[in-house]
Amino acid sequence: MAEPKLLSIEEVAKHNTAKDLWIVVDGQVWDMTEFAPEHPGGIGSILKYAGHDASQSYHEVHSPSLLPRTLTTSKLMGTLDTSTISDSWSKPLPQQNPKVQLQNERPPLSTIISTHDFEAVAEKTLTPKAWAFYSSAATDLVTHRANRSFFDRIWFRPR
Question: 157 and 151 in contact (C-beta within 8 Å)?
Answer without folding.
Answer: no
